[in-house]
Amino acid sequence: MRRRPGHFLEPKSQNQPRRPGLELGPNHRNKLLSGTKSTSTQKGPMTHFVYILANKPHGAIYVGSARNLRSRIDQHKAGIPGSHTQKYNIKTLVCFEVHSDTREAIQQEHRLKKWRREWKEDLIGRFNPNWKDISDQIPF
After folding, report:
1. Strand partners, 92
2. Closest listed residue to residue 30, CA positions, set 90, 87, 111, 114
3. Pick from 72, 74, 52, 62: nearest CA to 128
4. What is the pTM of this model?
């Protein structure tokens, strides 16, 4: 199995590779939000989000990033013609992360897209075990 530096959740055994990205240590400025209200004080035009949408628990998943998460979620819910989210009816926001740096957010999105499906499901399950829509918890 391929090993990558960095992780969010510890692997279940030492034989599994570590998950890349989403490292949230005590000095980490990013907040992964789902199921709880935001405590972030980040505001202004430089805020960027990395998010995960799903069509049902353990169903189709979409990973994306956006500056205006509310607007982007509305676009997904309206159905972007020809898109992956429209084809598989992916409209439920199950997880998101706030970044203050756009490049960092885009890099994080790319890391998450490379994750194995199991890791993404573990991430969602840890922060939103019922896979409920958390669109009402988007800050700002």
Report:
1. 54
2. 111
3. 52
4. 0.71
